[in-house]
Amino acid sequence: MKKPSATPRMREYLHRIERILVPLWPDARPLLHSSSCFELLCAVILSAQTTDEQVNKVTGPLFAAYPTPEAMALAKPENLEVLIGSLGFYRVKARHLIGTAKRLVQHFDSKVPSSMEGLLSLSGVGRKRASANRASSLIPTCPESSTVLVSTRAGTPRRSRN
To answer: Which CATH number describes the domain made up of 37-138?
Structure first.
């Protein structure tokens, strides 16, 4: 499936938006704390029906105990449930985390897929979560600066901040 590209007019429009918004929020950062694509994916899965603040409280201990897809794939659901028990739907989320980790190990060489199709094949990842994960991983230095994301997804060239 061919990725849609922006017209020159749309690119200029997006650059105008970026010139307005980036100075207003120059230090935009994701609200979910993560240090890898795997951690971001897990945090996004955990974020359903809860706040980013609550997710951030559990991810530190969670990733200390299970830092890799391989480690999480071997986890017992009840062990994850203890770590994420303060979140709603923690039993379902524990199963999704383990299922996702197993699929990453078995089918994606323990790497988070970048394609929508690959992300949608993971346990607990629907279109909304897959889109959030893809968008956040497009620009690692500024993952949730919406204007930069929109510009990048529309096919505008990256510009230097120098």
So the answer is: 1.10.340.30
